[in-house]
Amino acid sequence: MKQLFFTPGPSQLYPTVKGHITKALRANILSISHRSKQYQAIQEQTVGAIRTLLTIPNSYHIFFVSSGTEAMERTIQNCVQHSSFHFVNGAFSQRFYTVAKELGKAVYAQSVPWGNGFPLSKTAVPKRCELICVTQNETSTGASIPIDEIHQLKRLNPHSLIAVDIVSSAPYVRLDYQTIDVAFFSVQKGFGLPAGLGAVIVSPQALEKAMYIREKNISIGSYHSFPSLLKESRQNQTPETPNVLGVYLLGKVCTDMATYGIDRVRQETEAKAELLYKYLDEHTAMGAFVKDTQFRSKTVIVGKVKEGSKTLIARLKAKGVVLASGYGKYKNSQFRIANYPAHSIANIKRLVKLISFARV
Ligand SMILES: *Cc1c(COP(=O)(O)O)cnc(C)c1O
User: Fold this and answer.
1) How far away, in angstroms, is 68 Cα from ligand 1 center?
2) Cα distance between residue 288 and residue 303, in whole Å
3) With helix as H, strand as E and coil as C, how does the chain read?
4) Ligand 1 within 6 A of 246 CB?
5) How far is the CA of 188 from the centre of ligand 1 (A)?
6) Residues 239-280: pLDDT tens digits?
7) End-to-end CA distance of the chain
8) What is the pLDDT at residue 119?
9) Which of 193, 219, 173 minimizes the C-alpha distance to 67?
């Protein structure tokens, strides 16, 4: 059966992916050596395409890892000697916090209930926190942090590095990378690709910090430390055998999105989100989980259903339309809808119509 995936990730594939996989097979991309010139050209293309699409400064490095979760661990290891600070409002920001704790760091947090956002700039961060961690888009709740708040963090906390999880908001999110030190994403969310690859964007200051920590004889990890990733990336390679197909496809999709127009992608994302929130706000038996409109995510829309979300999810699934359930304790009362570049306006209109027909 033909299915349409509105799950936050893995999700609907970006429309050009199938064609690129076919071409990759024909060009033997799946068998070439990761030390070959052919691979180096692929990685060079992909890094360039990410840089162009997201407007990443030339002085910032782009490294490949295996996932968003790995990126959290690498960020903590390479940027924190003693202590980190976390804004926690859902499962993924909590994970970032837990990773730091498990790595033996002293962790500080500002926590608010799920579904809420933060006035980041009004939070006092202890000076000793070397890294401030922000989950820009909480995929578990559909709450997102306004980008202007993130842009102020560095000015307000000049003693800290800033790390931003953009896993479920990239490439929609318009970050000014000059104001942050680390950002990371994985490809199975907004890029509409198969899972198995993450990218970390690293400032020169974050790299310096990694080398400083290493000099203190504290582990910053082995093959995927920032310095080892940098060493290999200078030759358009990775320390290990990477997900070659993933790197290839990411470059192709970034180029396709840039050709389509990133502004257009962003405008359409906002228009589609508005459609969904308007529908939820007007519904009597349903509503948006995030009440404060300034914190409503444009890329992951979370709805709650008075009578429970199970029937709705099941009825849509029978029509070939896959939504995600609520996260954790909200599993049976909420649903989550991904609104990524792979989802067309027509897809979203069809979804709204089907939700209406499902009569729950
Ligand atoms: C999915 C997700 C992650 C984890 O990414 P993986 O690639 O699954 O490891 C981290 N943060 C956020 C906000 C996410 O949505």
Assistant:
1) 5
2) 4
3) CCCEECCCCCCCCCCCHHHHHHHHHHCCCCCCCCCCHHHHHHHHHHHHHHHHHHCCCCCCEEEEECCHHHHHHHHHHHHCCCEEEEEECCHHHHHHHHHHHHCCCEEEEEECCCCCCCCHHHCCCCCCCCEEEEECEECCCCEECCHHHHHHHHHHCCCCEEEEECCCCCCCCCCCHHHCCEEEEECCCCCCCCCCCEEEEECHHHHHHHHHHHHCCCCCCCCCCHHHHHHHHCCCCCCCCCCHHHHHHHHHHHHHHHHHCHHHHHHHHHHHHHHHHHHHHHCCCEEECCCCHHHECCCEEEEEECCCCHHHHHHHHHCCEECEECCHHHCCCEEEEECCCCCCHHHHHHHHHHHHHHCC
4) no
5) 9
6) 999 999 999 999 999 999 999 999 999 999 999 999 999 999
7) 24
8) 84
9) 193
How confident is the model over 140-170, as pLDDT tens digits? 999 999 999 999 999 999 999 999 999 999 9
- Say if residue 237's pLDDT is above 90: yes
Residue 126 identity: P
| Mean pLDDT within 96-104 | 98
Residue 300 phi/psi, 5-degree rounding, is: -135, 110
* CA of residue 151 to ligand 1 center, whole Å: 22
Distance of alpha carbon 356 from the chain centroid? 30
Cα–Cα distance measured from residue 72 to residue 220, given in angstroms and rounded to the nearest whole number: 13
342 backbone dihedrals φ, ψ, rounded to 5°: -70, -15
pTM above 0.85, yes or no: yes
Ligand 1 proximity of 92 Cβ (cutoff 6 Å)? yes
Question: Ligand 1 mean position to 92 CA, how many Å?
Answer: 7
Residue nearest to atom 10 of ligand 1 (CA): 68
254 lines ligand 1 (CB under 6 A): no
